[in-house]
Amino acid sequence: MRGWRYNPAMSANIDAYVSPLFDVVSTKQREALYRNPLNSIHLSVPLGDDPAGAALARLREWQASGVLLQDELPGIYAYYQYFRLPGSTREYCRKGFMCHIRAYDWAENVVLRHENTLPASVNDRAEPAGPHAVPDQRHARALPRRRL
């Protein structure tokens, strides 16, 4: 997998371009994130009658204009998500990684769904591939991550 990242020239303001996970963004937070035309919210929770088409168009636009640049070498991408639970001052860190794997049909039970996923938040991402899907990438989305 050769990841796509925001152009390094944008690194100083990276917090303005990345958004929380699509299933935890509040309506008020979304409104603020949508104001930045380069925020990743436009890829993960796009507006319009054809969200998948809008995300694909925006992704291609950012790739063509150099907003997003593809890594030269394939890699395994580690990431850390820091968060606090409501009502708690304790900070938690979720660690994970992203890499390229073959996409299997859910019914094959090779790659299992996340145990705590909110169905309403992911139904459009788990449905059979639509007209804008790329073969073998139906259940994946490329987001810029830092490689260790």
UniProtKB/TrEMBL annotation:
Region of interest (Disordered), ranges: 121-148
Pfam families: DUF1015
Matching InterPro entries: UCP033563
PANTHER family in the cross-refs: DUF1015 DOMAIN-CONTAINING PROTEIN, LMO2823 PROTEIN
Protein name: DUF1015 family protein
Lineage, opening ranks: Bacteria, Pseudomonadati, Bacteroidota, Cytophagia, Cytophagales
